[in-house]
Specification:
The structure is a single chain. The protein has one domain: TIM Barrel (Alpha-Beta Barrel), CATH 3.20.20.70. The chain is built from 18 helices and twelve strands. It has an eight-stranded parallel barrel, surrounded by six helices. Strands 4-5 form a two-stranded antiparallel sheet. It has a two-stranded antiparallel ribbon with strand order 8-9. α12 runs parallel beside α15, α15 crosses α16 and α16 runs parallel beside α18. By secondary structure, it is of the alpha/beta class. Helix content is 42%, strand content 15%. One of its GO terms (molecular function) is fructose-bisphosphate aldolase activity. Pfam families: DeoC (PF01791). This is fructose-bisphosphate aldolase. Its EC number is 4.1.2.13. It comes from Cesiribacter andamanensis AMV16.
Amino acid sequence: MAVHIEQLLGQEAESLLSHECKTIAKSRLHLPGADFIDRIFSQSNRSPQVLRSLASIYNSGRLAGTGYVSILPVDQGIEHTAGASFGPNPDYFDPENIIKLAIEGGCNAVATTFGNLAVMSRKYAHKIPFVVKINHNELMTYPNTYDQILFGSVEEAWNLGAAAIGATIYFGSEESSRQIVEIAAAFERAHELGMATILWCYTRNNDFKKGSTDYHVAADLTGQANHLGVTLQADIIKQKLPENNGGFSAIGFGKTHKSMYETLSSDNPIDLCRYQVANCYMGRIGLINSGGASSGASDLAEAVRTAVINKRAGGQGLISGRKAFQRPLAEGVEILNAIQDVYLSDTVTIA
């Protein structure tokens, strides 16, 4: 598989696969591994029931027992409208096909809506770990508003057999304070019931764009969002791959230190992602990066590139949806397996 990875990386292969991180040394990180739950979570306040739920995720699918995770997320039916999301492949209007893709694709878990998982819970809850996405940004309000609102209760997620709940917070938005309080309470309740927690730590504010540069994907902003997420006791952090840096300085808010840009990071994409990992308690809480939108023919190469950057930075996996479900099943499985092969490859090492 190493040759295949190099081919997919193209001209970036040498720079990505041979990069040595000189910002935050890998020796400072708590890296993924077969013993991750024993090494990290057994020291925490997580109950035995939560440890069992985490184990069900870490020990499922093709990456079982590695400490890495590959999750299929499908909440775009609400977030982006169902027709726009499933138009490329109408099979996924049927939630059973979402779960089948996750199983056949060798994923550790499937993350989707209350409705999707509830309608199939008795058939599949014991076959693959469920992650119930409990809040969403709906697009039916006109003019459109951008807010994450709860679509159900933590108790109902537990009732339908979920191993974990997932939630999004739009850090930087006008509604973020309410979302933080809301999701902190939801995560506390989920842990009480024995479920794990995954937080989509997204940034959102129109002023985070300056000219042609979008700082929603800046390492400093996303890193701080991650740090807020782990403080809320998320067990896994989902974040977009960083594409730039210096958001706090360009926008003119927050607190910074020159070391954030001069010694703790660089322009290299692996170093930018490592700064995100560092903000997840130096890897004590796993960072999974999102796969992003489907671009068509380049999806396979883009997915592998993201996986290589995440793994070499010290991250814990990928959560990729649209690249997989907006195409025929066999092609979706191929992309999911290619992502997993990066984490199974001995030649893709920690930078």
